[in-house]
Amino acid sequence: MTDYYEYSIPELVQLLGTRFKDYRMRSRMTQKDVAEQSGLTVNTIHKFENGRVPNLSLSTFLLLMKAIGCINGIDGLMPELPESLYLIKESGRKTQRIRHVSTKSNTLE
After folding, report:
1. 35: enclosing H helix or E strand
2. Alpha-carbon distance 19 to 70, whole Å?
3. Are 52 and 21 in contact (CB under 8 A)?
């Protein structure tokens, strides 16, 4: 299994671009087809696939995933989690945010 923590963000974007190209080609779509489906330019798609985009917005990536019919892959990326008892308060309500609790003592020595 690959340890993706070893990669920089630009390297991860480049890896995704390479994988995206493979998925696009297996879907028998041209870059122009993807551009028309996503509303992005062919140049953007070309740069992404060839690792010349150091950063890509999440919304752009999702548009690309929709265009090639892989948007359901989100479930593999971040599957929905079951309810956590840790996040349920004594009142039965779900915690809305996590606050940092200081472990420092406030007493004077």
Report:
1. helix 31-38
2. 12
3. no
Provide the β-strand partners of residue 94.
Answer: 88
For residue 73, give both structure tokens: 């892959």
- pTM exceeds 0.90: no
- From its phi and psi, is residue 85 left (phi > 0), alpha (psi between -120 and 50) or beta? alpha
Instruction: Give the confidence band of 104 by pLDDT, cuts at 50, 70, 90.
Output: low
Q: CA 23 from chain center: how many Å?
A: 16
Q: Which residue has the tokens 């551009």?
A: 35
Q: Are 51 and 14 in contact (CB under 8 A)?
A: yes
Place of tokens 């998925």: 23
Quote the tokens at residue 101. Answer: 């609790």
